[in-house]
Amino acid sequence: MTTAILNWSEATQAVDSAKSILMVTHLNPDGDAIGSLLGAAHALRARGCAVTTLAVDKGVPTYLRFLPGADGIVPKLEGGEWELMISLDSSDEERTGDVGMYGRAHSQRVINIDHHPTNTLFGNIYLFRPDAVSTTQIVQEWLEQMGQPLTKEIAVPLLTGLVTDTQGFRTSNVRPDTLGYAQKLMQAGASLTEVTARTLGSTPYQNIQLWKYVLPSVELKDGVISATVTQEDMKAARLSDMTDGGLVEYLVTANEAMISVVFKELADGRVELGFRSKPGFNVAAVAFSLGGGGHTQASGATIAGPLEAAKARVMPLLHTARAQGTLTIA
What element of type H or E holds 228? Predict the structure, then answer.
């Protein structure tokens, strides 16, 4: 899916008329997920809309709890009925987890706000723009369409999404107008210095401990660099929630690497995959073929294990993506 669908007026009418609104985002939320959720929620509440519940499975990551309103996001839904559900930054229904599944079953309509090219267009009303650098950009455009002024509590989450999804304005889809959106958010009170420091410049010591156990698994072959995180690694680093500690982003910075992948062994035997690539190489297509999704340069999926079987299935796909791509950094 590559064509934008922007039902601005219908979305605005839906939130203005709804007596109860549930807002959700995807599993393992990143800065764009929580940023778009909170930025939109603050704006709609300032508009007088009845936003009653914000939810994301398992709650907000520690490094994003500085965002205004983060303490109001619930980690699960055990009851409730809503006239409207707003799904943000989720390419498909499964990505919204249990809160999304419950919300869709107990909501009359769904607004789907997203920028992932792999979006399946679930829901009833769409603010879908695959050329946007982040979902927060789409939210910001929506606020401009409805004439809703920016405040600091709106701007800080929205800037967080812009910064994190562009890796500090370094991805290939960044355009001059991207910096224009950031400028408006900074003028509304958001600090680029603080947002960057708290997100891209923040690493818990436990993540560094995890790398100590994982780095011996790193392999580079024909431009594809890989690593493996096992359950034993997680226990040794005393981590409970599966993560690679940002390793997949670090690995692709190797000069000889065009694509990076981290295989993460889940407790149930499945394997979670994280992909990154340099400009000119499409890992989203690989993720989508495996039932996942994401961006051209940053995507992922979860597949059946065990680890060795997952590697045997995935690595040939990545080598094909490597062969089909061309480095576009000047």
Answer: strand 224-229
Laid out side by side, the sheet with 224-229 consists of 219-221, 224-229, 259-265, 271-277, 298-303, 293-294
Query: What is the C-alpha separation between 60 and 63, in angstroms, rounded?
Result: 8
Query: Residues 115, 137: contact at Cβ < 8 Å?
Result: yes
| Structure confidence by residue, pLDDT tens digits, 56-101 | 988 899 899 999 999 999 999 999 999 999 999 998 998 899 999 9
Please tell me the distance from the alpha carbon of residue 14 to that of residue 123, in angstroms, as a whole number. 13
Asked if 113 and 87 touch (Cβ cutoff 8 Å), the reply is: yes
The CATH class, in words, for 205-324 is alpha beta
Instruction: Write the CB contacts of 162 (distance below 8 Å, at least 6 apart in sequence).
Output: 35, 133, 134, 136, 137, 169, 178, 181, 182, 185
Tokens of 203: 């690493």
Express each pLDDT in 134-153 by its tens digit. Answer: 999 999 999 999 999 999 99
Q: What are phi and psi of 88, to 5 degrees?
A: -120, 135
User: What tens digit of pLDDT does each residue of 228-284 get?
Assistant: 999 999 999 998 777 888 899 999 999 999 999 999 999 999 999 999 999 999 998
Query: Residue 206: what residue type?
Result: Q
CB 83 within 8 A of CB 18: yes
Instruction: Identify the CA nearest to 148 among candidates 7, 301, 16.
Output: 16
In this structure, the strands spanning 219-221 and 125-128 are: unpaired
Q: Tokens 């679930």 label which residue?
A: 122
Domain ranges of the chain: 5-198, 205-324
Dihedral sign for Cα 275, 280, 281, 283, please.
positive
How many C-beta atoms surround the C-beta of residue 98 within 10 A? 15
116 near 96, Cβ under 8 Å? no
- 5-198 has CATH 3.30.429.10 classification: no
Residue 240 φ/ψ, nearest 5 degrees: -105, -40
